[in-house]
């Protein structure tokens, strides 16, 4: 059992990567659509590029949204409106008319009263012929109207045949004028205003139910295509009925309900493809970025960013796929380049675009645009800590998007007459969203403990509290660190290493000397050497301690791990040779391993550069009457000795790069000592 636990503990890093790999694969597959995907791309009024297409199964031809909307509009237009007719209101009005008429007109009018009474009843009969509306519903005049008595249909007419409550006035005045009774208009109008009551009211429930029944009868299809029927031939134009059939087949592929077995196969297939893509990333890291592969935090960070881009794109596609280019996908290579390098950033970007090709429309066009934009991002963005560089690069990325989209549009449409300027606006929004990379980098630094060039720039400021403290407590060490930083930066630039990182590492590599500054020669201004009072072994332990003290101070001041690596490795496993020889004079059997730094050895180009520059700069103080020949021999001797001691075996640095660094150090030292060529007398 104990052996099993030990085995698990030794392989915990690999087990974590396997779990991360499986978890990320599962989440990405979960986000992907699980329906079928039409494997052909086609455009309206363009030739069919693939081979002859036959129907793979029976399917219905779908009506277009425009056709369905037109049918719905016709049904809504032709549907009837149902009104409740209240007959008792009409009876009440006629009874009330009799009473009010007799109260208004005197019997002295004789036959005229009878004539006026008939005119009034005639007008009422005309008004209540089909019913009186309680309000004007603004329906078209030819709108079908059904009159109801309870649940029974009693009449059918049009909306224009129904009377509005104020319509009586014109009818009444005309009747009176035609029969020479115009002088009674005012009396009749006043009486009818108090008399007329509406007896028609819309029955909204029955009207809506009847409309819904008619709408439900609309068929979303028109005709069927049988299996093995030729749909379209190669080179044939995709237009008219052919286009409708192809869209129907595509819709059938993407919306059909899958059986349990089909669904399982789709998920398995997606899982295989996603797993292969992520496996390629892990293999790339293992072969070309070993230090990243071994750091689980960094691997998690890369996977997290890929998953984030897939999630954002999926959400946008599910909302509305036409906004897919708003997603700032170029943030991914920007972030990875800021924390790692351009090659890793581009490789991860391309793999992410390949994954997104499963879920976006027009996948070829999308992938082409995004890969080109990613390449431009990697090529144009340099020194991200300079704000102007980011704005310029984002402008170039946006321009590339617009130019590439324009080219695709012209290829598809054949002209620019119908150019979609809304897409250009989306690319501009994408560019603006890409500017969010600066605060995003800061957030990532805090969440994942990484360090970018922006943070390195801040740390390189000699006015930081820690460097001020170093300059006050150990001014000689501070001056030495500045010289080493200049040498290391020039060397890094020469071989293409991270110059900003190595400069910061050089500035902080000796901060541990603040604890006992006078025990280091560069800080001994009085000429008194405290080591004279100590044994060689005690002196060696004090010299060793500046590394551990430096790591402790760095962690206390929250310096990034990448900077602490320089403190830990700047002496590698070299020997404190001076005190070793002194001890050997006292004891010939002295073991050299007792005077060797605990390490580790440098494990990157940057840490190897610092070791060379630190040793050369420190030893250069002992040069007397320096000349070009002496400096050349001096540099060669120090660095060759480090190589023979195997200090650079773990660093990813070549002999050619070491020779380039030697050349830089020789030139820099010659400038420091102000060497001049000797002119003949």
From TrEMBL:
<dbReference type="InterPro" id="IPR011624">
    <property type="entry name" value="Metal-dep_PHydrolase_7TM_extra"/>
</dbReference>
<feature type="domain" description="HD">
    <location>
        <begin position="477"/>
        <end position="595"/>
    </location>
</feature>
<dbReference type="InterPro" id="IPR006675">
    <property type="entry name" value="HDIG_dom"/>
</dbReference>
<dbReference type="InterPro" id="IPR011621">
    <property type="entry name" value="Metal-dep_PHydrolase_7TM_intra"/>
</dbReference>
<keyword id="KW-0472">Membrane</keyword>
<keyword id="KW-0812">Transmembrane</keyword>
<dbReference type="InterPro" id="IPR006674">
    <property type="entry name" value="HD_domain"/>
</dbReference>
<feature type="transmembrane region" description="Helical">
    <location>
        <begin position="390"/>
        <end position="411"/>
    </location>
</feature>
<dbReference type="InterPro" id="IPR003607">
    <property type="entry name" value="HD/PDEase_dom"/>
</dbReference>
<feature type="transmembrane region" description="Helical">
    <location>
        <begin position="263"/>
        <end position="285"/>
    </location>
</feature>
<feature type="transmembrane region" description="Helical">
    <location>
        <begin position="423"/>
        <end position="444"/>
    </location>
</feature>
<protein>
    <submittedName>
        <fullName>HDIG domain-containing protein</fullName>
    </submittedName>
</protein>
<feature type="transmembrane region" description="Helical">
    <location>
        <begin position="344"/>
        <end position="360"/>
    </location>
</feature>
<dbReference type="Pfam" id="PF07697">
    <property type="entry name" value="7TMR-HDED"/>
</dbReference>
<dbReference type="Pfam" id="PF07698">
    <property type="entry name" value="7TM-7TMR_HD"/>
</dbReference>
<feature type="transmembrane region" description="Helical">
    <location>
        <begin position="297"/>
        <end position="317"/>
    </location>
</feature>
<feature type="transmembrane region" description="Helical">
    <location>
        <begin position="14"/>
        <end position="32"/>
    </location>
</feature>
<keyword id="KW-1133">Transmembrane helix</keyword>
<dbReference type="Pfam" id="PF01966">
    <property type="entry name" value="HD"/>
</dbReference>
<dbReference type="InterPro" id="IPR052722">
    <property type="entry name" value="PgpH_phosphodiesterase"/>
</dbReference>
<feature type="transmembrane region" description="Helical">
    <location>
        <begin position="366"/>
        <end position="385"/>
    </location>
</feature>
């Amino acid at each position: 059992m104990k052996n099993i636990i030990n085995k698990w503990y030794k392989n915990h890093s690999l087990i974590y990567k396997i779990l991360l790999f499986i978890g990320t694969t599962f989440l990405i597959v979960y986000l992907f659509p699980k329906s079928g995907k039409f494997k052909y791309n086609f455009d309206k009024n363009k030739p069919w590029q693939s081979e002859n297409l036959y129907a793979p199964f029976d399917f219905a031809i779908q009506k277009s949204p425009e056709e369905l909307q037109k049918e719905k509009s016709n049904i809504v237009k032709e549907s009837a409106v149902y009104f409740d007719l209240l007959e008792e209101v009409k009876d009440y009005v006629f009874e009330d008319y009799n009473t009010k008429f007799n109260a208004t007109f005197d019997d002295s009018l004789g036959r005229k009263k009878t004539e006026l009474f008939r005119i009034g009843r005639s007008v009422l009969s005309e008004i209540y012929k089909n019913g009186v509306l309680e309000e004007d519903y603004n329906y078209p005049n030819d709108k079908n109207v059904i009159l109801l008595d309870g649940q029974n249909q009693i009449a059918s007419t049009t909306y224009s045949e129904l009377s509005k409550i104020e319509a009586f006035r014109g009818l009444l005045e005309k009747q009176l004028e035609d029969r020479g009774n115009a002088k009674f208009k005012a009396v009749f109008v006043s009486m009818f205003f108090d008399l007329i009551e509406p007896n028609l009211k819309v029955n909204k429930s029955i009207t809506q139910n009847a409309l819904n029944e008619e709408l439900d009868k609309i068929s979303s299809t028109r005709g069927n295509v049988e299996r093995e029927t030729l749909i379209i031939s190669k080179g044939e134009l995709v237009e008219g009925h052919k286009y409708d059939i192809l869209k129907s087949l595509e819709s059938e592929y993407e919306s059909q309900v899958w059986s349990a077995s089909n669904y399982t196969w789709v998920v398995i297939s997606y899982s295989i493809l996603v797993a292969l893509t992520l496996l390629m990333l892990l293999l790339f890291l293992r072969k070309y970025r070993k230090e990243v592969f071994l750091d689980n935090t960094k691997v998690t960070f890369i996977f997290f960013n890929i998953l984030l881009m897939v999630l954002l794109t999926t959400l946008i596609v599910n909302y509305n796929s036409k906004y897919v280019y708003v997603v700032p996908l170029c943030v991914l290579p920007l972030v990875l380049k800021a924390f790692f390098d351009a090659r890793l950033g581009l490789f991860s970007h391309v793999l992410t675009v390949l994954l997104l090709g499963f879920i976006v429309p027009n996948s070829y066009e999308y992938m082409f645009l995004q890969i080109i934009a990613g390449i431009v991002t990697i090529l144009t963005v340099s020194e991200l800590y300079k704000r102007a560089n980011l704005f310029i690069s984002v402008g170039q990325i946006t321009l590339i998007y617009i130019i590439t989209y324009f080219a695709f549009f012209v290829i598809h449409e054949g002209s620019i007459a119908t150019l979609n300027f809304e897409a250009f606006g989306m690319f501009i929004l994408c560019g603006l969203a890409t500017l969010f990379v600066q605060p995003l980098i800061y957030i990532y630094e805090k969440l994942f403990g990484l360090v970018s060039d922006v943070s390195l720039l801040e740390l390189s400021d000699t006015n930081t509290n820690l460097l001020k403290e170093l300059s006050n407590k150990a001014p000689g060490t501070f001056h030495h660190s500045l010289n080493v930083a200049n040498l290391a930066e020039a060397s890094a630039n020469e071989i293409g290493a991270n110059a900003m990182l190595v400069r910061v590492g050089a500035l902080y590599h000796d901060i541990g000397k603040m604890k006992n500054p006078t025990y280091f020669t560069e800080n001994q201004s009085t000429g008194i050497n405290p080591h004279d009072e100590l044994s060689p072994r005690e002196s060696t332990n004090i010299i060793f301690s500046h590394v551990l003290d430096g790591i402790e101070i760095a962690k206390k001041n929250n310096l990034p791990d990448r900077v602490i690596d320089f403190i830990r490795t700047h002496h590698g496993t070299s020997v404190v040779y001076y005190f070793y020889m002194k001890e050997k004079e006292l004891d010939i059997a002295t073991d050299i391993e007792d005077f060797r730094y605990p390490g580790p050895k440098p494990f990157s180009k940057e840490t190897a550069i610092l070791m060379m520059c630190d040793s050369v700069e420190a030893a250069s103080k002992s040069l007397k009457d320096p000349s070009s020949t002496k400096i050349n021999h001096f540099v060669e001797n120090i660095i060759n000795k480090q190589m023979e001691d195997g200090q650079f075996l773990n660093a990813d640095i070549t002999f050619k790069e070491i020779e380039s660094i030697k050349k830089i150090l020789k030139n820099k030292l010659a400038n420091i000592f102000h060497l001049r060529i000797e002119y003949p007398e």
